[in-house]
Design goal:
The protein is mainly α. Helix content is 56%, strand content 4%. A hairpin with a 7-residue loop joins strand 2 and strand 3. The longest helix has 44 residues. It is a multi-pass membrane protein. This is XK-related protein. Pfam families: XK-related (PF09815).
Length: 580
Amino acid sequence: MAAKSDGAVAAAGPGPEGAAGGPRGSAGGRGEATESAGGPGVTGAGGPGPRYELRDCCWVLCALLVFFSDGATDLWLAASYYLEGQHTYFGLTLLFVLLPSLVVQLLSFRWFVYDYTEPAGAPGPAVSTKDSGAGGPVISTKDSVVAFRTKEGSPELGSRPAPSSASTYRRRCCRFCIWLLQTLVHLLQLGQVWRYLRTMYLGLQSRWRGERLRRHFYWRMLFESADVSMLRLLETFLRSAPQLVLQLSLVVHEGGAPKLLPALSISASLVSLAWTLASYQKVLRDSRDDKQPLSYKGAVAQVLWHLFAIAARSLAFALFASVYKLYFGIFIVAHWCVMTFWVIQGETDFCMSKWEEIIYNMVVGIIYIFCWFNVKEGRSRRRVALYYCIVLLENAALTGFWYSSRNFSTDFHSLILVCVVASSFALGVFFMCVYYCLLHPNGPMLSPQAPGCIFPKAPGPCGPPADAVTSPPRSLPRTTGPERDGASVGGERAGTPTPPVFQVRPGLPPTPVARTLRTEGPVIRIDLPRKKYPAWDAHFIDRRLRKTILALEYSSPTTPRLQYRSIGTSQELLEYETTV
């Protein structure tokens, strides 16, 4: 996925564009974030810098445990069906394991090929740097024939002696070994395991290295975390979700107490779905420094929320499918179509092309079959409430139709299953309320807020940036000192408040930022508008842009800031000033 990443040359210091700083200083909810108000899309990379902690390593280890338990129980159950002679169940169980895994491995290997393939005619991503008159280096992401070129009088970052034949041979051998290893890893369906291990390696390297290399490794760790979280999200809803419904349907159809292997498979699939959703949201918030990071308490609350909500949803599906198989298929397709249309109507902006956006919306429609997934910027409580009202009605209808086919007088087991569906859904809603009311990164939902400001403690005003308009409109005279103090001017009595000629309506509150703005140092300007949360930034989606940024960041003596093109703010103020 390649996007237009040839931006105009950027200078150090603040500008009208929205800046996306380097990796956050307290990613993953580690410590309290510094509160600061800024313009829309403006963030910085100041502070002590990012730090990878041991709890992050433990989180990745738990993710690996969930991954292996889910795959191992499904394969074990498939082998058990084969040995028992139940070839239909064996085929379905194995199909839901292998087909999603092949799709995800192909996508992962495609990303690897793009990341490790050098552009033709250049040793790496084509970039250029030169000195700036503002005191900081100017860095551009425009394509250039000469990589890391500098202006005369500045140190040449990219000038290196010609490599010897021995070093060239070693380099080719290393590349061949990497390609061979990655091919074997993906053929063994272990692409995500490799990415999880690499995430831990890069995080630990960022913890042990010096300041410059620490930031570089942390950036690469965030990129790797984003990749594996997107891959896991795709795989779990293509594999674990249908596997969960299938095994629950078989257990309900057989009746009685479930056997050990189906129970283990169901539990592993359920935990995998809940864990992947919470991990995805955590990595997404950690990657965006215009949002507060998600704490581990909030992540655990999300796991419990999705665990119970998906359990109720899947059990309702299994009960209905055990009796009405054809109508269940019709219901799933209809629900998916409605939810996909709802997502498309919301005009999401996640991908870099139109067709990728359509495919993404279709995948989100699959997710909406089982649980809530935020895809739109802004307050989501009304959309969450509407979605769960629809889910509640659907669960009640599906469970009611199934219960109506049972014997009411003698089948006490059916009544217990209905109560399990209701209580599990209630627990899911309870933990969702706990998350939004107590553990949300933006603060408790019901806490009082200062009027007009995002941060009550912020010393600055809440309107547009102070340097956006540096002088009053030219069509109006300046207000003199006596007029401001209420003195008698033009025959009017002193102290009489003069009505303003015009009033500027205050703008929307700025997006909360996780730390203080940083205005010094090099800037990488990206000629793209920054995507709004909950979308990933373009440098996480566009791999060509990612390679260029990593090369610039590694060649720079200090960690550069990322600056996206801002639309609307400066043009709107200029137009208003001109018309007045």
